Amino acid sequence: MKLSRSKKKTSIGGFTTARSEKQDKRLYNRRYRRACKQVLHASPGCELLPHPREYSDTWAMDKDGKVWFDPEKYPKEMRK
């Protein structure tokens, strides 16, 4: 009996050995939500919220972007 395997549809992966950016994303969202709350508390009628990029830098996270790879050369990377 052969078990099925989930496969990626596109051959793209993280540019580093970090497994996840979960912690980075959590910290960013905490900072951004806090800034939004402060703006809304200071002036409740304000419709302009801070720009999301002010509180996060994607290049400072664990993964520095993504890279394409050859699925025939690295078949193991196509597994989910």
Quantity of strands, as a count: 2
What is the succession of H and E elements? EHE
User: Roughly what is the average pLDDT, rounded to an integer?
Assistant: 85
Low-confidence stretches: none
Number of helices, counting only DSSP H or I runs of 4 residues or more: 1
Which structural class do you get from the secondary structure elements?
alpha+beta
What is the C-alpha radius of gyration, as a whole number of Å? 19 Å
In short:
By secondary structure, the protein is α+β, with helices and mostly antiparallel strands. The chain has one helix at 22-42, and strands spanning 12-14, 66-68.
Describe the protein's architecture and organization.
With about 80 residues, the chain is α+β, with helices and mostly antiparallel strands. It is built from one helix and two strands; from the N terminus they run E-H-E. Strands 1-2 form a two-stranded antiparallel sheet. The two termini are about 20 Å apart.
Q: What keywords describe this structure?
A:
1 helix; 80 residues; alpha+beta; single chain
Write the layout of secondary structure elements.
Blueprint: E1 12-14, H1 22-42, E2 66-68
Antiparallel strand pairs: 1-2
